[in-house]
Specification:
The longest helix is centred in the first third of the chain and has 28 residues. This protein has one domain. By secondary structure, the chain is mainly α. It is built from 15 helices and no strands. 41% of the residues are buried.
């Protein structure tokens, strides 16, 4: 039991690292590490009806809903993600400020490898679903080519950003951090984490919880009923999203040695592939 909890905690750390990097999805890491289906099923099984039962002191009824929550997964996983956020926020901010091209080369390798792993999840490839891949690719390619949306940092904006980001975080192929970057919230959220701005973080987190519960059931449905098409769509999204790190590499290429760019890209690619091979031996 302790070994399983520790393993989930370590997987949570990996997810947290991915979630804080613009370009890599924590959902992809969950898929690679073998806990994705359990995570989505666990989230969709959470029923907040236990809250009114507790308020009415109907503890027996509340317990029926609470017993369905996969605490053995969620507690160590959330602790691992939180650990990563606290440790990695300063480092990522520093790297993006001082080593832009090398950092985005690393991201490019991570995304490319993740796309290949997602494609392996497509069990029934047919001509009928090829257009789904094209739609995903063109959508991501066009979105990441747009200028960032210049939004403020009001509490309603933080709530909405949290809802959108969490949907991306649990969806393989879409980076929640990238969504925040696109919404002009990424650096601000990193500063909130570094400064432990509790009020703003609670609002952001509340948006995340709202988005998580509203989106997880839909995601669970399409994965169970249209898994191959969904994975192919997400593969297209990831490959289309490569435009984002590529643009940042090109714009800052004069600041880095091309050899280091190549090494960084290869390292990113190999890390994901090694993780996929290692974790697949011990799926939970």
């Amino acid at each position: 039991m302790k070994k399983e909890l520790l393993t989930i905690y370590l997987k949570g750390i990996c997810m947290g690292i991915a979630d804080i990097i613009p370009g890599v999805s924590g959902g992809t890491i969950a898929l690679i590490t073998g806990i994705y289906d359990r995570l989505i099923t666990g989230i969709s099984n959470i029923n907040i009806k236990f809250i009114p039962h507790i308020l009415k002191k109907e503890y027996g009824e509340a317990k029926k809903h609470i017993d369905k929550i996969d605490f053995k997964l969620f507690i160590p996983l959330v602790l691992g993600i939180g650990t990563s956020f606290m440790i990695m926020s300063n480092l990522i901010h520093y790297l993006l400020e001082n080593y832009v091209a090398i950092t985005y080369s690393f991201f490019f390798g991570l995304i490319l490898a993740s796309a290949l792993i997602l494609f392996k999840e497509v069990k029934k490839l047919s001509i009928k679903i090829i257009p789904i891949f094209i739609v995903g690719f063109l959508f991501a390619f066009s979105v990441v080519g747009s200028e960032y949306i210049q939004l403020g940092h009001s509490l309603p904006i933080l709530f909405a950003s949290g809802a959108l980001a969490i949907c991306a975080m649990i969806l393989p192929g879409i980076s929640g951090a990238f969504i925040l970057l696109f919404l002009n919230q990424y650096s601000y959220i990193i500063s909130l984490i570094n400064g432990l701005q509790i009020t703003e973080l609670l609002v952001f987190g509340a948006g995340g919880i709202a988005g998580l519960f509203s989106f997880s059931r839909f995601l669970s449905y399409i994965l169970h009923n249209h898994r191959s098409a969904t994975m192919l769509f997400l593969t297209g999204l990831m490959l289309g999203a490569l435009r984002f790190p590529y643009q940042n590499i090109v714009e800052n290429i004069n600041t880095a040695n091309p050899l280091f760019l190549g090494i960084s890209l290869i390292c990113g690619f190999l890390i994901v592939m090694i993780m996929e091979g290692g974790f697949n031996k011990n799926k939970i």
